[in-house]
Amino acid sequence: MKPRLKRHALIKKQNNARHALPKDEAKLYIFSTQLTRLIDSIPDATLLKTSAGRKLVTTKLTQRLFKQHDLNWYSKTRLTPTATNQQKSAPQHAQISLQAELNVALEKHQLKLYYQALVNSAGNIVGAEALLRWEHPHYGLIAPDQFLLIAEQSGLILPISAWVLQSACEQLTLWQRDPLKQHLLLAVNISPRQFNQPEFVITLGKMLKHTGINPSRLKLELTESLLLHDTPNTIKKMQALKRLGVRCSMDNFGTGSSSFSQLKQLPLDQLKIDKFLIRDIVFDSCNTRTIKAVIDMSTKLGINLVAAGVENEQQFTNLKHLGCYAYQGYLFGKPMPLAELEKQIR
Ligand code: G
Ligand code: MN
Questions:
Q1: In whole angstroms, what is the distance from residue 37 CA to residue 90 CA?
Q2: Can you list the positions of beta strands (E) in the chain?
Q3: In the chain, fewer beta carbons within 10 Å around the N or the C end?
Q4: Which of 36-40, 76-80, 133-137, 180-184 has the lowest mean pLDDT?
Q5: Ligand 1 proximity of 336 Cβ (cutoff 6 Å)
């Protein structure tokens, strides 16, 4: 080999070695979280019957070991995004590689909206929640909890959030033209950084005007921590949103610590009870009492209640008896591509 070519080959080899690890780790991370999610959704007894199932369990155990030994590097990097260490650790490389890919995901149309049905007590679809998914060419479907933190840290969250909101408005325009679908509500998750942009209300106002949608069909889901942070300004902003005609909902209610007096101050239309409270409603009378208390409180405040994460008939029956307004969860449908939801509506 000629000396120049030899040097070139050597550099190439070094580069390959440098890039292979982070990419693999990113892949491993995504793979294992997807697997955990999968395992979580299968009852244990069924799982252990097949060799594939046993393999899944092994992987899960391996992951648990990772955690025990504090090797869950991804969550560690998430907590220390501004580490001063000169030499970047492998996890940070992995994060950068994902970030670079996320950078182009929007323009490559890899980000998609999935839709999860929202039903009334009769089980009829009254709307949906738009949920962001990343259809990655190599890793498959990636849920937002796996990339939103990277998006937050890199600032990509703003263009992504704007795209979600714009797409939701465009979807509502289409539904509005269809007699079968014009009654549907569409809920969108709003990121704290998006909400805190000074021009958020104006931007949304323009979107509503351009798309010509009925604003009362659009529901903004806001997190509890966002709503309880800087409450006076948040209230002002929510009031401005309500003047636009859109509805506001508190997402994941029950996982935070908002009090009755705090809730009373917020101009909310809806509370969405988190799936963790719903999960044990059948067996745990304490949870049932909590939900009953939440329902009584929200009735007094004139706020309606949506139960998230309804997975079986018994939960649905109990929640109906308690007097929920609407329901969402795997019992009625997983988050799915638009065409599938529309088929379900027909
Ligand atoms: O935080 P938020 O409520 O927006 O989260 C919605 C997420 O919860 C979706 O990404 C979806 O995958 C998941 N989810 C929706 N319905 C159910 C359910 O019935 N059970 C469980 N375990 N998860 C659900
Ligand atoms: Mn939500």
A1: 24
A2: 111-119, 125-136, 140-142, 185-189, 218-223, 247-253, 270-273, 304-307, 326-328
A3: C
A4: 76-80
A5: no
Q: Which amino acid is at 190?
A: I
Backbone angles phi, psi at 154, to 5 degrees: -95, -10
Q: How many angstroms is it from 96 CA to the middle of ligand 1?
A: 27
Coil, helix or strand at residue 264: helix
Which residue in this structure is represented by tokens 């800087």? 230
3-state secondary structure (DSSP) of residue 230: coil
How far is 102 from 134, CA to CA, in rounded Å? 9
Q: What is the pLDDT of residues 49-79, one digit of tens each?
A: 566 666 666 555 555 544 443 333 333 233 2
Q: What is the pLDDT of residues 304-326, one digit of tens each?
A: 999 999 999 999 999 999 989 99
CB atoms within 10 A of CB 36: 15
Q: Measure the CA angle with vertex 260, ends 259 and 263; round to 5°.
A: 90
Ligand nearest to the CA of 273: 1
264 Cβ partners below 8 Å, 6+ apart? 301
> Ligand 1 within 6 A of 219 CB?
no
